[in-house]
């Protein structure tokens, strides 16, 4: 009789673990969307690793700009603008990647307004039209359905039993002209 209880408890724990693994990203995204809709910056900030998010975004954007400059495919004025942009990058990212900026990625009303207006949402990401892709036990990412990595993926890292937004995958062709 005791073995049955042990097997039942182990099976229950495995079931809870599998359920957490499969559903916790969706739960986190729902909580983030709810916090964004409610304009609860404190709650939303709890789901974002802002220092890691800002640093990874800065380094990726600078790398994309430097790759564009090194390619020789930019004219003199464009190259000058990019060099000025690199020098202003840190302050710009600090200003964009705030609780309000992240909220704009998750609040459906704000996303719809951004799509219909000429102003683009931060990095062109629309979390409401994204799908979850697992990158191992400690990471998952969101990308727009049918466009993996084209508009930037949101990457989440596991923090204990929860998840935090830790990176935005910036496309390396971000500064290429769209024909």
Description of the molecule:
Helices cover 56% and strands 15% of the residues. The model is unreliable at 109-124 (pLDDT under 50). Strand 3 and strand 4 (162-169) form a beta hairpin. By secondary structure, the chain is of the alpha+beta class. The protein has helices spanning 2-37, 41-45, 50-71, 76-96, 99-106, 108-116, and strands at 130-134, 139-144, 153-159, 162-169. The longest helix is centred in the first third of the chain and has 36 residues, at 2-37. The radius of gyration is 20 Å and the shape is elongated. Helix 1 crosses helix 5 (99-106) and helix 3 (50-71) runs antiparallel to helix 4. It contains six helices and four strands, in the order ααααααββββ. It has one domain. The relative contact order is 0.15.
Question: DSSP helix count?
Answer: 6
Strands across the major sheet, in which order? 1-2-3-4
**Rounded radius of gyration (Å):** 20 Å
The average pLDDT is 76
For the biggest sheet, the summary is:
4 strands, antiparallel
The secondary structure category is: alpha+beta
The poorly predicted ranges are 109-124
Offer a quick outline of the entry:
This protein has helices spanning 2-37, 41-45, 50-71, 76-96, 99-106, 108-116, and strands at residues 130-134, 139-144, 153-159, 162-169. It has 179 residues and is an alpha+beta fold.
